[in-house]
Each structure stands twice: as C-alpha cells, then as structure tokens.
Design a protein that fits this description.
With about 260 residues, this protein is α+β, with helices and mostly antiparallel strands. The chain is built from 5 helices and 12 strands. It has a single domain, classed as Deoxyribonuclease I, Chain A (4-Layer Sandwich), CATH 3.60.10. The strands form 2 sheets. A 6-stranded mixed β-sheet has the order 3-4-2-1-12-11, with no helix packed on it. Strands 5-6-7-8-10-9 form a 6-stranded mixed β-sheet, with helices on one face. It is globular.
C-alpha cells in the first residue's frame, strides 16, 4: 500500500499587499503557488472582505482573497477571521487539494490584545481501489507579538490538541508563531511529540522575516506521524516583494496502515 506524499506550505501573505508600492499581489501570488504545487496551504493574514482606501498604506481594494487564490488545484478551503478593523478583517485560511470534512476555530486571544486564533481543518484523504482513506488534522496558528502572550497561547494550543485530536492521528501544525526567542518548539516537541520541519533535518528554524533581509525565525511547520523528505524557505526575487514574510515548504510522507 503506497504511502501518502504531502507537500505543505505555510505563508503569511500580508493581506495580499506587496512590500513595494503597496500593490495587490494576488495574481502573482497565485501563479507562484501553483508552480510549487502544494497539497495543503496554511495562510495567515488573509483579507476576508473588500475594503475601501483607508490611507497611503492601503490598496484601493482587497477583495475576496481566499476565493481568488483557491482554484481547481485547491478546491477546498476554510477561513476564520482573527483581526477585525472598523471596515475589514483578516485571518487564517487553509487551502486543500483534498476535502475538508470539517473545521473548528480555537480562540487564543488574551484580554484586550490583538485577536489571535488557531484554525483546525480536518482533512479527509479519500480511499480508492488500492488505498485506504486517511484523516489528517491541520492546524493553522498565528501567535501574538509578546513573549508572555505566546507562552500562554502555546499552552492553550497544546491543551487543545491533547483534548481534541487522537494521539495516533497524523497532525500538521503550521503558521506564523512570532517566536523570535525560540521558545515554542521546545514546548511543542516535548508535550505533543511533534517535529519541526527544519529542526528535523538538522537545521535551524528558517529565517523568514523581513522578507527582503530575513533575520527573524517566525514561521514553522510541525508534524506528527509523518516522515519528512525535504524542507525549504523560498528566497527568490518574487518572494522578497510579495509579502513581508517568506514562505516555507515541507514535503512529508504519511504512512498508510
């Protein structure tokens, strides 16, 4: 029985606004993502609705970004808003080649700080004549900017996984962890028995921010009950201007029973 090969991509898309000239980048972004052919995409800061011009730092329109990015390559998607402004919002999204049987949202906001959350997609890999079906739990996280905030949010994430997801089920947790102090990985690996895509290859966390001169290691892909074949941080010319983050990719192999 053949194992499942799964390409994972995680990317904070900065609401689809390019680093230069504040132009919309959705068409270019979609083409770039299509070339990579990921099976499962974790996006952060996806604008949920249209907005009018709010000043020099905003484009005239940020419209239906999730629907604009999804196509025949990723016909299944889920979205949950995080940050809500007076006239628009943005949040986490999961795009999938495979059906999303259900999705849940875990609010991890602390007090009056900026709203944060974890989007949990339950991915159903269909069975066929030669292979059994498979369920994968995909969690898209965007943690806070303060160390005390991330510490509590990481514990909330761990408790949610332990309470909600079977220990034997394949699991992928990806997103923007804002973890420049390098504290989250130790907590997750010890308490959830996950591996981080770059650490498992004997490398440091990927430097993903700011995209034009990446110094901080903010974005991660964690996994459980899978084997990693490769991982990469995309640093080409186009990626330096599409967002203020760089995307990361991991190729996983999930054994089938």
């Amino acid at each position: 029985m053949a194992d499942l090969r799964l390409r994972i991509l995680s990317y904070n898309i900065h609401q689809g606004i390019t680093v230069r000239r504040n132009r919309l980048s959705l068409t270019i972004l979609k083409e770039a993502l299509q070339e990579l052919k990921p099976d499962l995409i974790f996006l952060q800061e996806v604008a949920g609705i249209s907005v009018e011009r709010l000043g020099k730092m905003w484009p005239e329109k940020v419209e239906h970004q999730l629907e604009g990015l999804a196509d025949e390559m990723w016909p299944h998607y889920a979205y949950q808003k995080n940050v809500i402004f007076s006239r628009h919002h943005h949040g986490n999204a999961i795009l999938s080649k495979y059906p999303i049987a259900d999705f849940l949202f875990k609010d991890i906001t602390l007090g009056k700080l900026k709203k944060r959350g974890v989007l949990h997609g339950i991915i159903q890999i269909p069975a066929n004549d030669h292979q059994s079906g498979l369920v994968i739990h995909a969690l898209n996280a965007h943690l806070g900017l303060f160390q005390f905030e991330r510490k509590i949010q990481t514990k909330m994430l761990v408790e949610y996984v332990k309470k909600t997801i079977d220990e034997e089920a394949p699991l992928v947790i990806a997103g923007d962890f804002n973890d420049w102090r390098q504290r989250v990985t130790k907590e997750l690996t010890q308490r959830l028995s996950v591996q981080e895509a770059f650490y498992s290859a004997g490398k440091n966390h990927a430097r993903t921010f700011p995209s034009r001169l990446p110094i901080l290691q903010l974005d991660r892909i964690y996994f459980r009950h899978a084997n990693m074949k490769s991982s990469a941080c995309l640093k080409g010319k186009q990626w330096k201007v599409l967002s203020d983050h760089l995307p990361i990719v991991a190729d996983l192999v999930i054994p089938r029973e």
